[in-house]
Amino acid sequence: MNIKEINNKMDAAISFFEKELSSLRTSRANPSMVENILVDAYGVKTPLSQLGNITVPESTLLTIQIWDTNLLNSIEKSISDSNLGITPQIDGNLIRLPIPKLSEERRNELAKVVSQYGEQSKIAIRNNRREFMDKAKKDEKENNLSQDELKKIMNDIQKITDEYINKVDKLVLIKQEEILKV
What distance in Å separates the CA atoms of residue 164 and residue 154, rounded to the nearest whole number? Predict the structure, then answer.
C-alpha cells in the first residue's frame, strides 16, 4: 500500500473537478469555457481548441479565430447547442462570443451545478478510498499485513480521504461565491 499512489488518485479526482469548474460560465470571459466544446469536424468530434485560436480581448468577450472557414457552421451549431447560453456572432473567420451578465436565477442554477460537480467529485474520492481499503483488506487476508497494520492503513486512508473531501468543499464554496458575486 503506497500513500503516494493514493494521493495521486485523489489528486486526479481534484484535477478533473477543477477542470469542470473552469468550464462553468461566470460573468468574466475565460477560454476554458469553450475549449472543450466538441465540434463535428471532418466526421470526427473535435475539441474547439483544436480548430482555432481562442482569445479574450476584453473581460466580457471571447473571440475564436477559425483556421478552416468550412467549419464555421458546425462550430456555431456546437456553441449554440452547448449549455453556455451564449449566441455566437460570426464575422468572416472570426467568431465573437459576448458574455452577457448573469441573471440572479441563472447564477443560482450555476451554483447548484457547482454543488452537483462537487458531489460527483466526492463520490470519485470515496470510490478511490474503497478501492485502497479493499486492497488493504485483501493483503491482510493473504497474511501480508497484521490487524494492527491494517487499522493504521485504514486510518491513514480515511485521513487522506477527509483532506480531499475538504478540498472539494472549499473549491465549491470559492466557485459559488465567484458565481453569485454581482
Answer: 15
Please state, in angstroms and as integers, the Cα–Cα distance from residue 35 to each residue in 38, 81, 156, following that order: 8, 14, 38
Q: Is the dihedral of CA 157, 158, 159, 163 positive or negative?
A: positive
Q: Which fold has domain 28-98?
A: Gyrase A; domain 2 (3.30.1360)
SS3 56: strand
Q: Report domain 3-21+103-180's class.
A: mainly alpha
Under DSSP, is residue 130 helix (H, G, I), strand (E, B) or coil?
helix
For the segment 62-80, what is each residue's pLDDT rounded down to a tens digit? 888 888 888 888 888 888 8
pTM of the model: 0.68
- Between CA 165 and CA 162 the distance in angstroms is 5
